Amino acid sequence: MTLWYLARAAGIVAMIMFTLSAALGMVMSGSRRPERRFWLQYVHRSAAATGLVLLTTHVIAVITDSFVAISPTVLLWPFGAGYRPFAMVVGVLALYGIVLTSVVGAARGRLARSASFAKHWRTIHIAASVGWLLSIGHALLAGTDRGTPWMLAITIGCLTAVGAAAAYRVRATTSPNLARAWRAQ
């Protein structure tokens, strides 16, 4: 049972950390003050790194748990999973999107010298957003707790947080007064 609890907890908290990272990423784009942007970016990256550690823990715990019939091959061929194959496909695609963005983001400092890379960074970074959204889908489809009120509340809270951050970002870019008020803080 220990691996089962560890897998569930790591997956849920990873989803929360990626939600925090996504929300901060959206909010930070409106900040022009260097010290505020620095701290928002620091927490954004720290939440993402923590989420990656927890995601790794989740995957290892699920694969090593003998109760669930999921082998390491599911990472390469998720359709062959014996446990909720569609949910596994969604989860593996979420993993790919998040890991792709993390690897490219880690190399971003070196790649930033390239004008071509700098131009395409936002497009590549969208893979993290897609990965986050797919992780929400995975939680709703795969988890043993997916139908419980507390898990639905966490999932709805994650969707609400990112939705509010997205609404703030859209409003800040379309309303100069709101953007100025945010920058003045």
Q: What features would you describe in this structure?
A:
This protein is an all-alpha fold and about 180 residues long. It has helices spanning about 1-30, 35-65, 85-105, 110, 115-140, 150-175, 175-185. Helix 1 runs parallel beside helix 6 and helix 2 (about 35-65) crosses helix 3.
Q: How many helical stretches?
A: 7
Structural class: mainly alpha
Unreliably modeled segments: none
Gap from first CA to last CA: 48 Å
What is the element layout, followed by pairings?
Elements: H1 2-28, H2 34-64, H3 85-106, H4 108-111, H5 115-142, H6 149-174, H7 176-184
Record keyword descriptors for this entry.
185 residues; mainly alpha; 7 helices; 0% strand
Quick summary:
By secondary structure, the protein is mostly helical.
